[in-house]
Specification:
The protein is α/β, with parallel strands linked by helices. The chain folds into two domains: about 150 residues, 3-Layer(aba) Sandwich (Ribosomal Protein L4, Chain: A), CATH 3.40.1370.10; about 35 residues, no CATH class. Helices cover about 30% and strands about 15% of the residues. The protein has a six-stranded mixed beta sheet. The longest helix is centred in the middle third of the chain and has 17 residues.
C-alpha cells in the first residue's frame, strides 16, 4: 500500500511511502478491536474505591437498648448498617479491573484499526519536520495547510519531540504521540491520522506480524 507524502505547506512532494498491506490493508477484525478497547478502558480504572463495613466504622460496641420489652426492633451495636453513621452493606471494595489480552491480539487490533482508517482515507503522511521554538501558530499553520485544522487530529511522531508537543498542547483538537504509544482506542477516534514519514515506516515495522519488536505499549 502506498501513501503520497505531503509537505508542511500542504503540497504533494511527488514522493510516496510504501507500507505493507498486512498492517494497513487487512480485513478489520471488529471483535478483537472491541476486546482491545475494552482492555484499554479497563486499565484506566484505578480500583481504589472503598467503603467501611460495620467492623471498620468508629463507634461503641455496647448493646444500645434492652433486647426485649421496649416495643422496638432488636438492635445491637450502633455501627449496624441500619443506623445513621453505621457501616455499609456490600459496599465497593478495592479490586483490579485489568483485562488480559495477549500481544498478538493487541497488535491485530491496532492493525485492524489502522486498516479501517486507511480505507476511510483518514490517514495522511507529512514529511518529517521539526520546530525550533515551541509556538502554537506553527502547528496551526501546518494543520491548516493539510486541511486538518478545527477537527480532531492525531499527530504521530517517530520519537517524542518536546517542541512539537508544547506547540500543540493548547489545541484541544490535536494530540501528539510517538508511534509506539498508539493503541486501538486512540486510533479509531481521530478524523485525521497524521503520520510523519519516519513514523509510518516505524509503525509498519513495529506492527508487522513477521517481526517481534519490543516496545512499551499503552
Amino acid at each position: 500500500m502506498k501513501f503520497p507524502v505531503y509537505s508542511i505547506t500542504g503540497q504533494e512532494t511527488g514522493r510516496e511511502v510504501e507500507v505493507p498491506d498486512n498492517v494497513f490493508s487487512i480485513e478489520p477484525n471488529e471483535h478483537v478491536m472491541y476486546l482491545d478497547i475494552k482492555r484499554y478502558l479497563a486499565s484506566l480504572h484505578r480500583g481504589t474505591h472503598k467503603t467501611k463495613t460495620r467492623g471498620e466504622v468508629q463507634g461503641s460496641t455496647r448493646k444500645i437498648r434492652p433486647q426485649k420489652h421496649t416495643g422496638q426492633a432488636r438492635a445491637g451495636q450502633r455501627t449496624s448498617p441500619i443506623f445513621r453513621g453505621g457501616g455499609r452493606v456490600f459496599g465497593p471494595q478495592p479490586r483490579d479491573y485489568s483485562i488480559k489480552l495477549n500481544k498478538k491480539m493487541q497488535n491485530l487490533a491496532r492493525r485492524s484499526a489502522l486498516s479501517a482508517q486507511a480505507a476511510n482515507n483518514a490517514i495522511k503522511v507529512v514529511e518529517d519536520f521539526s520546530i525550533e521554538i515551541p509556538k502554537t501558530k506553527e502547528i496551526i499553520k501546518i494543520l491548516e495547510a493539510l486541511n486538518a485544522s478545527k477537527r480532531f487530529t492525531l499527530l504521530v511522531l517517530p520519537e517524542p519531540n518536546r517542541n512539537i508537543y508544547l506547540s500543540a498542547r493548547n489545541l484541544p483538537y490535536v494530540e501528539v504521540l510517538p508511534y509506539y504509544s498508539l493503541n486501538t482506542y486512540i486510533i479509531v477516534r481521530p478524523y485525521t491520522l497524521l503520520f510523519t514519514e519516519k513514523a509510518i515506516l516505524k509503525t509498519a515495522d513495529w506492527l508487522s506480524p513477521s517481526k517481534s519488536v519490543s516496545h512499551e505499549t499503552a
